[in-house]
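Go through this pair.

…
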Amino acid sequence: MELQAITLMEAYIIENLRKQDVSNEELLHINEQAISKWQKLDDRFDYTILKKLAEQSGDQFTLIINEGYRVKFLTLNGLINLIQLKLEKKRDTDFVVHEDGISNLVLDSHERQVVRQILSPNWKVTEESDRLSIRSM
């Protein structure tokens, strides 16, 4: 199955809401009331971006929320932030940052699948025993 590609900002919004214990079901029912509630949880984001994504992608939005997504273009900082947000891994504790990527990232099989899924085509994953290295191409 080809995953829907979303922007890095859309991914940040989804993962930040999940970190605030917003369920997938709540994410799927975006309306002005939900946006107002989310704004109170974290006012750093423009949640209308997520509403626009839902409107533009139609049925695909359910798949994005329930099955996952791929980020259209992922920067190094974006990669670091998503790994910290989505997988709760800590920089310099759970992985090492380099100029062109990260290394020594220890993940279970589900987390490995999640990382491979979100990466945009400008990243290459290599496995080094039980650790992943993700470098820009």
